[in-house]
Write a structure and sequence with these properties.
Endonuclease, Chain A; 6 helices; disordered N terminus; six-stranded antiparallel sheet; 362 residues; alpha+beta
């Protein structure tokens, strides 16, 4: 009789996993399911419930973390917490908590941590129907970040070759899923003045082209208006352009008639330097997994790989009708759902720890 735990509904839940494992995103019409991934999430969830509710934990043991969850409930809801443990745990608790009215015993030998759950019952007369939580992190403390608000500047990691260097200022609240990134691209820009000098010394059949290094590797440039084989006295000036047709400076050329005719002179050129430029589409939302896309370029923010991605460190929770109402009614702490049915299960229900210990002679 003990193995047929409480009622068919709970037997199914305890056999297949989390009490919320059957809920999917398409079930929003029957319950609002959320993942609590920080203390701020938890506190906001508690505060949404009617003040003065009762929180019942169904757990394999009452760990220090379980007691922390109960304390947070008292602080942010004002209600009381109760604990229901399986019989193997209850044997050890008889000497510790026998006279603590918060402790109860379920008619079951053990309970896996993964099947832990908790129910929030609203006070009598409240219109809200209650809420549930589930998962091993009702017992094991999750590795939640200690700070919910983030504010930092970091170099972005490109997701493909050829993307320019970029950085971003990231800020926002993890619990509100509202992280933003203000992106800056580090790009090569042309200087606004001619700060590079190079000499010219070519034969008389020179085609007017130069190969130069002006801050960004080798480049090819040409003298605009140059005609090979031209002859003049003195010097002439020419605009200098690169292969993209951009103005890059100016050159002076002299004709010398010395071993044949040669062209000699100098060019004054605009070189390259790197500078940060704010993206034209700032500010950008941080996407699931810590990605950010700006000006069509996709980067990753290192350290935020778990952002908006369930990582097994959350407490599942749900609130809303009719699914949650059915759960809370089915496992009401006030009375067995089988009473008045005449069935044998009517007498099998969780009991105060003090009663259970006395019955067992412990």
């Amino acid at each position: 009789m003990r193995k047929a735990f409480l009622l068919p509904f709970l037997s199914l839940v305890l056999a297949q996993g989390s009490i919320l494992s059957g809920l999917s995103p398409t079930d929003r019409d029957v319950a609002g399911r959320v993942l609590l991934s920080s203390l701020n999430d938890l506190r906001a969830f508690y505060a949404r419930q009617p003040q003065g509710s009762a929180l019942w934990f169904f757990v394999p043991e009452v760990s220090v973390w379980t007691q922390t969850l109960a304390q947070e409930f008292r602080s942010h809801n004002g209600g009381q917490a109760r604990f229901v443990v399986p019989e193997n745990t209850a044997r050890a608790y008889c000497s510790l908590y026998r006279n603590d009215p918060r402790f109860h015993v379920m008619p079951r030998d053990t309970l896996p941590k993964e099947q832990s759950f908790a129910v929030i019952y609203p006070p009598s007369g409240a219109t809200q129907k209650g809420a549930v939580m589930a998962g091993r992190h009702l017992v094991d403390r999750p590795d939640w970040q200690t700070s919910d608000y983030l504010s930092f500047t970091t170099t972005l990691s490109p997701t493909q070759a050829g993307l320019p260097e970029a950085q971003a200022y990231v800020w926002g609240y993890l619990s509100q899923n509202n992280l933003k990134a203000r992106v800056q691209f580090r790009e090569w820009v042309l200087e606004s003045y001619e700060n590079y000098w190079t000499g010219i010394n070519f034969g008389f059949n020179w085609d007017g082209r130069l190969s130069v290094v002006v801050g960004r590797g080798g480049e090819s440039m040409y003298l605009e208006g140059w005609v090979p084989g031209g002859f003049w006295v003195g010097r002439r000036s020419f605009p200098v352009r690169d292969t993209q047709g951009r103005y890059r400076g100016y050159a002076y050329v002299y004709v010398y008639a010395d071993w044949i005719f040669n062209y000699r002179g100098e060019a004054y050129l605009r070189g390259w330097s790197q500078a940060l430029r704010y993206a034209t589409d700032n500010d950008r939302p941080v996407e699931a997994g810590g990605y950010v896309t700006s000006e069509g370029r996709r980067y990753r923010i290192l350290g935020l790989e778990g952002y908006l991605v369930p990582g097994g460190k959350e407490i599942e929770a749900a609130e809303g009708d009719p699914y949650v109402s059915y759960i809370t009614r089915s496992i009401s702490p006030n009375r067995s759902p089988f009473e008045r049915t005449g069935r044998a299960e009517a007498g099998i229900w969780f009991k105060p720890l003090s009663d259970w210990c006395r019955e067992k002679g412990l």
